[in-house]
Specification:
Blueprint: E1 23-25, H1 36-51, E2 62-69, E3 76-82, H2 85-102, E4 109-114, H3 123-131
Antiparallel strand pairs: 1-4, 2-3, 2-4
Helix pairs in contact: 1-2
Length: 133
């Protein structure tokens, strides 16, 4: 993962730092100690909100990626944007909750990533950068 374009998530019980790591929540167990997926979302939201800064116009001010898995299957990534952090968060959290319910995930893991910078490239510049990877 490129720390310049996303931020990793730490388990919900860890202290948030400004180290550039993404924020992730430990598995949520329905009715268990962690309070379920809603508590996991709330814990991640508090950490992401202080680390996520708005992007300049004309881009969406906030772009968030919610990755959800049960630890056995490949994570599904949900994308949400908004003019405010709350708008983007609410849209992404709503989609993540719906996914957990629809797929009946028993102990979902959650990871939140966000865009930290944007810029314009010509097609030639993009192709050159992709060759460098």
């Amino acid at each position: 993962m490129d720390p310049a374009t996303s931020s990793p998530v730490r388990p919900a019980g860890d202290a948030a730092t400004d180290s550039g790591w993404p924020l992730a929540g430990a598995p949520a167990q329905a009715g268990g100690r962690g309070g379920g997926f809603a508590a996991q979302l709330a814990a991640c939201r508090d950490k992401v909100a202080v680390m996520c800064a708005p992007l300049p116009a004309p881009y969406p001010a906030f772009t968030l990626f919610f990755s959800v898995t049960d630890g056995q299957r490949r994570a599904q990534v949900l994308h949400a944007t908004g003019a405010s952090f709350d708008e983007a968060w609410q849209a992404g959290a709503r989609r993540a909750n719906a996914l957990v319910q629809r797929q009946q995930l028993q102990s979902p893991w959650l990871r939140i990533d966000w865009v930290q910078g944007v810029g314009e490239l010509s097609l030639g510049e993009l192709e050159h950068q992709l060759r460098q990877v």
